[in-house]
Amino acid sequence: MDEEFASERSEQARGGVTRRKFLGTTLIGGATLFAGGSKMIFAGDPPAAAENDTVFRVGGDLPVNRLGFGAMRLTGAGIWGWPPDRDNALKVLKRAVELGANLIDTADAYGPETSELLIAEALYPYPKDLVIATKGGNTRPGPGQWVPNGRPEYLSQCIDKSLKRLRLERIDLYQLHRIDSKVPVEDSLGALKKAQDAGKIRHVGLSEVSPEEIERAGKVLPIVTVQNQYNIDNRKWENVLTYCEKEGIGFMPWSPIGGNRGLHDNALEAAAKDYHASLVQLALAWLLHRSRVMLPIPGTSSIAHLEENMAAAKLKLSADDWKRIDALAT
User: Fold this and answer.
1) Residue 19 in this model has a pLDDT that exceeds 50
2) Is 26:42 a contact under the CB 8 Å cutoff?
């Protein structure tokens, strides 16, 4: 998850609504809830890796459940150092997989290194269908600081070090964290292409890019995913989403529930209550509804919030309900 600029305040701001009471009768109890008067359904089982609208094939050959997990928030404050409760971070990762998240997004810059190390500690040996997506190309001078470095020799080192930390022989999805304005993107991606040819990485993605930059990158090697900021309240990169839909590229929206600002829309919050859901769940379900290539990767350091997030994959609204939500969110 590329929410470098997000704050833990949004975690705290999400308390309340009806999270614990709601989850007690759905996710944890495994029940199915029908909202009175609507066609919303929360199914009890985690999304299965089957060929249906809950699954996307990254690069055409990696099936993942479309609602994944972002591991950035498992680090310390300022996305720096170890989390204050390491055992809890490990439990969150394990619970995410239990709930059906088989796409986990991280980066060497998260910590730095900490997030990748936690993933390996919690989940290795990995489930057969787990896809770990990591990133390189952003350096960390200090807490809350991010400086791109796209030099080929640096990226080559990043890949080798990520492989070691994650205990992998090959990284399924490796993403250029940022295009470095001081380095031609062809040079940066050339290092990734060499690693791909050597069998160190399987597929390549980009982050915070325009359609023109994706096309330029595609002349060096195939681009299978893009991470740009996008949510129900911020659709600046709508043109990139449209491009990804046309090309069959997975779109991994960072800040899917608003980042440090959170989501604050009274009309949408009222609508969410009508469907016995939280605003966060409605926002994530909207992303899944918005496009077949959408792969939200919300992150959290809280098991309660994780369970709330993952329940969004089971939120099913009728066509009329979605028309109502779209009208409110416009």
Assistant:
1) no
2) yes
